[in-house]
Design goal:
Elements lengths: L8 E2 L6 E2 L19 H15 L1 E3 L6 E3 L18 H16 L27 H13 L1
Antiparallel strand pairs: 1-2, 3-4
Length: about 140
Amino acid sequence: MGLFSRKPAYCTICNKQITAHKYKAKREWYGVKSPLCSDCHLDKMQEHYDATLIKKCMTCGVKSKVTDLWEPRLQWDMEGLLCKKCFDEKELEFNKKRDFCGICGNKLGFIRYNPKNHWKIKGQLCKNCWDEQKAQLDKK
């Protein structure tokens, strides 16, 4: 109920009585009438804001709403957003590099070996493969 109005105001969406402040619906929100309570106003603002933001997937370039895109994991060392399909592919690739040997493909145990930078091998190695790589490069 406002200072000078005699009638109580009701929200057009949830039909609750507005006690504090009446909000007006924005022109961009087609089909929404005023007055609005604070909760409904915030919900409509959030819906409108989310619907207007459209970004591209970093790997495949598909345009989508920001709410439908996924943020890459910190370990992947990537910037930007990914669609669900690309995120799942990247997740499988990362798990494979983390859980299996980079040369022979055997499942890694608790102890893992990191290849040296000049070996140019991606992922981690098992003890046997690490020893073989070290022996081959020591002979040269």
